[in-house]
Specification:
- Helix content is 75%, strand content 0%.
- The chain is mostly helical.
- Helix 9 (282-305) runs antiparallel to helix 10 (314-347), helix 15 runs antiparallel to helix 17 and helix 15 (441-471) runs parallel beside helix 18 (523-552).
- The longest helix is centred in the N-terminal third of the chain and has 97 residues, at 103-199.
- The protein is elongated and about 215 Å long.
Length: 589
């Protein structure tokens, strides 16, 4: 090493003028080395172990190192030579070398300093590069992992497609199998239905032929009847089957037997209800019958559903049941209705009030009978019900009509007619329009007949009244004196005399008659009766009244004039009395 330095010094002699600058540069380097030592103690020992890999003057020196070297050269200034301990003390960045005396020593020292500076400056770059290389390795591993995942997904997608294709095939196969299964189940159901048809004959026959009176109350009775009818329909639809005629005959016998059992059970129940009807009140009887309707409702509904089949005995069975029901009701009503009507008659003295309560009573009876019939048979429009209510109303008619025919008083007949008009069928309500009106058809018919009798009797008695009381009136002496006094007061104009209120008796009777028949008879009949009574009244005034007044005033010079005034005023009063709106309700005595 020393030989090389000596050769270097011989070849490159350092002028004396440069030695002072080199010494200053060395001192500045020592200061930089001390600062670098402090920094290295904080960053670690990694940089201190970095070996210089490039020598001074190498073309690979970076611009940063050249700039550092230039800074060191510029910072050098003349100063005394540093102590030898600076080169040996590590605190000052020393290398353990002796003091730099030659250029070779300086270059060697500078190469070491430059290596440490380069290591310090490139440490961060190398650390970042190392970090990036690790991240690059990680990215490469992640890319490889993503590739494997993508390959796995592609494999899954292909497998999913194959599974989907196979699932579609399985679904198609299942659909075909379900279709076949449905056909097989349908065939099995048809086979079971045919087998049930033939297999149900024994249990049905055994049930319908069971002894006792409680066969119809068995829960299986009506379902067995329906099975027998379905079996009969099936056999008739497959008449070409083996033994179809034999089975059809047996099932028809079962159906007829069931309908007969229903009839026998209903008749037995009706006989039981009619056994003690006379001892029951109307309300108690109604409760008993409704309770029986609850027990028989289902059986009678089943019978009514088959009542229109003319190929069976159902219509005749239904007619027999209805006849038994109406017989049971007639037994009670024929005893109850006359008794109730007589009781009502004893409660009143007014004949119009009696007729009013009779009408209300029989109207309620007809409505109750319609509702009871509907409780049993589900409808209130049966033809048998109309005949049954006619029988009830016949009792009312037989009691009411004789009393009307025997009645001779016009006012009573008018009151009876008004009462019957109140119970006449409402306007616009046609027979059979609704169930409620159908219940009262018999009532309205009988009330109409009784009303017709009452109006005819009223018209007849009114005509007799006109002939006897109006046309056949003969003035008494008292009436004649009152008439003369009244006509004289009119002639004298004395309005305060009480005789101003006197009225010719036929006019009074005309007013009374018109008042009572108003609204009780037909309009044309009422107009005819009024005209007849008015004509008879005028005839009585013109003939008998005027003559009587003239005879009473015989000898007076104004007798003829007063008689004429009497006729004029009385006829005017008669015309007023013939108008219903002008009449009063004063009673005629």
């Amino acid at each position: 090493m020393s030989v090389q330095h000596e050769e270097w010094e011989q070849r490159f002699v350092v002028p004396e003028t440069m030695r002072m600058g080199l010494a200053q540069l060395q001192e500045a380097s020592l200061e930089v080395a001390a600062q670098m030592r402090v920094a290295n103690s904080q960053r670690g020992s990694e940089i201190a172990r970095v070996k210089p890999q490039m020598h001074f003057g190498s073309p690979k020196l970076s611009a940063r190192r050249n700039a550092s070297l230039l800074t060191l050269a510029r910072a050098a200034s003349p100063s005394p030579r540093m102590d030898a301990r600076v080169d040996t003390d590590p605190a000052y960045g020393g290398t353990g070398m002796a003091a730099i005396e030659t250029t070779a020593q300086f270059l060697e020292w500078y190469s070491q300093v430059e290596g440490r500076l380069a290591a310090e400056q490139d440490a961060e770059s190398h650390a970042f590069a190392s970090h990036m290389r690790r991240r690059l390795d990680e990215c490469a591993r992640m890319e490889a992992t993503l590739g494997s995942v993508e390959a796995a997904l592609d494999t899954l997608h292909m497998d999913f497609g194959r599974v989907g294709e196979r699932t579609g095939g399985v679904r198609t196969s299942c659909g075909v199998l379900q279709t076949r299964q449905g056909r097989l189940e349908q065939m099995a159901g048809q086979i079971n239905e045919r087998l049930d048809v033939y297999g149900s004959l024994g249990p049905i026959t055994q049930l319908f032929n069971a002894p006792g009176d409680s066969v119809c109350t068995d829960p299986e009775f009506l379902p067995s009847l329906e099975r027998a009818e379905r079996a009969l329909e099936f056999i008739e639809a497959h008449a070409d089957a083996r033994d179809s005629e034999l089975y059809a005959m047996r099932f028809a016998q079962c159906r007829s037997r069931a309908l007969t059992l229903i009839k026998m059970h209903a008749q037995r129940e009706f006989r039981r209800l009619g056994a003690q009807t006379n001892a029951n009140t109307a309300s108690a009887e109604h409760v008993r019958v409704r309770a029986a309707a609850t027990r028989l409702r289902l059986l009678l509904e089943a019978l009514q559903q088959r009542g229109t089949d003319i190929h069976t005995n159902a219509p005749q069975v239904l007619a027999d049941v209805e006849a038994s029901y109406f017989q049971m009701r007639r037994v009670w009503l024929h005893a109850h209705v006359p008794r109730a009507l007589q009781s009502i008659e004893h409660e009143h003295t007014d004949r119009a009030a009696v007729l009013r309560d009779w009408c209300a009573f029989v109207m309620g009876v007809c409505a109750d009978e319609g509702r009871l019939y509907a409780e049993f048979f589900g409808t209130s429009t049966g033809t048998g019900l109309k005949a049954h209510e006619d029988a009830v109303m016949k009792v009312f008619y037989e009691l009411a009509r004789p009393r009307i025919i025997r009645e001779a008083q016009v006012d009573v007949l008018a009151a009876l007619s008004l009462t019957l008009l109140a119970y006449q069928r409402p306007q616009g309500d046609e027979p059979g329009e609704s169930d409620e009106s159908s219940e009262l058809d018999a009532f309205y018919a009988v009330v109409g007949a009784v009303l017709e009798d009452a109006q005819q009797r009223l018209a007849f008695r009114a005509q007799a009244f006109v002939r006897g009381e109006v046309g056949g009136y003969r003035m008494s002496a008292d009436d004649a004196a009152a008439a003369v006094q009244w006509i004289r007061s009119l002639d004298q104009g004395d309005q305060g005399d009480p005789v101003d209120h006197w009225e010719y008796p036929p006019v009074q009777r005309l007013r009374w008659l018109v008042t009572h028949i108003s609204g009780c008879v037909d309009t044309e009949v009422q107009r005819g009766l009024t005209d007849e009574a008015l004509a008879a009244c005028k005839q009585s005034i013109a003939t008998h009244g005027a003559r009587t007044v003239r005879d009473c005033m015989r000898g007076d010079s104004d007798a003829e004039q007063l008689a004429h005034l009497f006729v004029t005023c009385t006829i005017t009063a008669a015309d007023q009395a013939a108008e219903p709106d002008q009449t009063s309700l004063s009673d005629y005595n």
